[in-house]
UniProtKB/TrEMBL annotation:
List of residues binding substrate: D38, E40, H88, D188
Listed cofactors: Mg(2+); Mn(2+)
Composition-biased stretches (Basic and acidic residues): 12-24
Protein's recorded name: DNA polymerase III subunit epsilon
Annotated spans, Disordered: 1-31
General function of this protein: DNA polymerase III is a complex, multichain enzyme responsible for most of the replicative synthesis in bacteria. The epsilon subunit contain the editing function and is a proofreading 3'-5' exonuclease.
Lineage top rank: taxon: Bacteria
SUPFAM superfamilies: Ribonuclease H-like
NCBIfam families assigned: dnaq, dnaQ_proteo, PRK05711.1
Alphabetical UniProt keywords: DNA replication, DNA-directed DNA polymerase, Exonuclease, Hydrolase, Magnesium, Manganese, Metal-binding, Nuclease, Nucleotidyltransferase, Transferase
Gene name of the encoded protein: dnaQ
Subunit note: DNA polymerase III contains a core (composed of alpha, epsilon and theta chains) that associates with a tau subunit. This core dimerizes to form the POLIII' complex. PolIII' associates with the gamma complex (composed of gamma, delta, delta', psi and chi chains) and with the beta chain to form the complete DNA polymerase III complex.
Length: 270
């Protein structure tokens, strides 16, 4: 039975909508491209002859998905193991008329060239991609891209001692995965992009913990040097100082003289 991926329309060559139009080779592109990549395979071991059956890439620019993705089904030229079939549901019959990896390699590399690539459990996917590239005389994936980041390692750093599968991260970060009954490369790449954006949302603000997620979730941020900024000093006016003093008096009364601010707070400048 053909495998249907609800996230895309697939033509007879395993090509999904939105994959042709991408900025990988646009001269002078100033914006940083993040590409989230996922594969499905015939099994677990490229060293034992397992092959890629599906590959998907989702582009993110300025922390927003652009809709310009790359998605192909691939004829692996071999049978699919039962365990893998149970995971992704892609059958050999469905893949019979799909291109082999050699036929999609140039387009894939053109899409990936120069991008910062993010993969969940990167050694697994890069192992398969490097094997497929070597079979057609190409250099490993890392030689074509700016960087490869393992988002599983990122998650383990952010949430030590917790489950960090893609499903677990979706639940923890409240990313909707209701459409994920089977593993599919395009849907998983979309979810990975959403999860990573959530995990790194502190990187474009000050490193302040997100109180909504509690003390167990470390904030990830950047250091900003304010010394070069000319920031105006704004003082409270008389009404604001009076209102502030009234609140302190109420707290002082309720806490029987335990107002901490009166002990540490300097006088308002006039």
């Amino acid at each position: 039975m053909p495998h249907a991926n609800p996230a895309s329309k697939v033509d007879a060559q395993g090509r999904s909508d939105g994959s042709r139009d991408h900025p990988a080779n646009k001269k002078g592109a100033a914006r940083k491209r993040m590409v989230f990549l996922d594969t499905e395979t015939t099994g677990l071991s490229p060293d034992q002859g397992d092959r890629i059956v599906e590959i998907a890439c989702v582009e993110v620019v300025q922390r927003k998905k652009t809709g310009k993705h790359f998605h192909r089904y691939v004829n692996p030229e071999r049978d699919i193991q039962e365990g893998a079939l149970r995971v992704h549901g892609i059958t050999s019959e469905f893949l019979q008329d799909k291109p082999v990896f050699a036929q999609i390699a140039e387009e894939l590399l053109a899409y990936l060239r120069g991008a910062d690539v993010y993969i969940h459990n990167a050694p697994f996917d890069t192992g398969f991609l490097d094997m497929e590239l070597a079979r057609i005389g190409k250099t490993p994936l890392k030689s074509w891209v700016a960087s490869i980041t393992d988002t599983l390692a990122m998650a383990r750093d952010a949430y030590p001692g917790k489950r960090n599968s893609l499903d677990a991260l979706c639940d923890r970060l409240e990313v909707d995965r209701s459409g994920r009954s089977l593993h599919g490369a395009l849907l998983d790449a979309e979810l990975l992009a959403d999860v990573t954006i959530c995990m790194t949302r502190g990187q474009n603000v000050l490193a302040i913990q997100d109180a909504a997620h509690g003390p167990g979730h470390a904030a990830i941020g950047v250091t900003i040097d304010f010394r070069g900024l000319d920031l105006p000093i704004v003082y409270a006016d008389e009404a604001e100082r009076a209102a502030h003093e009234e609140v302190l008096c109420q707290i002082d009364k309720a806490s029987k003289g335990g107002t901490v601010w009166r002990k540490v707070e300097p006088a308002f400048p006039h």
